[in-house]
Amino acid sequence: MSASDDQSDVERVLAGDISAFEGIVRRWQGPLINLAYRFCRDRGRAEEMAQEAFLRAYRGLGQWRKDAVFSTWLFALATNLYRSELRRIPARTVPLDDIAEPHDTRPSDGGFEDQERDLAVRRAVGALPAKYREALILFYFHDMDVTAAALSLGLPEGTVKARLFRGREILRGKLPQLLAVPRLKEA
Amino acid sequence: MRHDEIDGILSREDEILPSSGFAASVMDAVRREAAEPAPIPFPWKRALPGLVVAGLAVVLVLVAGVMAVVQLGRASTTAQSSTFLPPVMPSIFHGGTESAAIWTAVALLVTLASVKLSMRLGSGRV
Question: What's this model's pTM, rounded to 2 decimal places?
């Protein structure tokens, strides 16, 4: 994905060539849908939210100041929209205290138990208070880049770091057994 | 639970692929959006005289209200307001200076709210 491709497509769209917007959609559809999916855990809703994000981006293309990379602007716009959507219609989540522990916590060789554990952790993230959940979602979506997560959330890096720390602390407190089990493959 | 374990689990999230018609669907929506006529801007030039008149009216009401409150204040120092005020005055002025001031403030707030509502209706945001 090239920033110059984005810039040239934006300039063409602003000059009246609507078809140039398709290049932007094709380059960023995957990331925007995946980001939406991490917020709502519903594939259909993720595509609807991503479509709305693209529409808003189209309407607001003229507001993109070229001092920031296009993707930074696009992710901030999409994150803002997804957060609003989730506030309007929250995703279905299991309360944090009801997250199921794995039935058998003995060491395993991976596979099903791993999947079950990973699923429980992701459910626990979904059940966190919004400010911690959003920080964790953006942090891992941006490959653990605090700066990128902070830009997407429109928050200072220090705030994001504090929320990440607190979010992980809540997870550690609520799911102690899940990740305390020694793993054969790590032994 | 260690932080690196959480990092490990949450970093290896499965990627989902967009459905085959997603880009086409977005472009259809964009073209529909582009085909719609641009929203009509609020006619500020036409509305300006009315707004100026409304503003002056608000200022006049404010001045009249302040003057009435001041007069009532003076009158209450010389005589009881209930005997001083003519019977045609609204009953709210018989409650004294504080009551009149409250009612004046309420009237101003109602005026401000109605102006704001008119502007919102004019801009089509309601």
Answer: 0.67
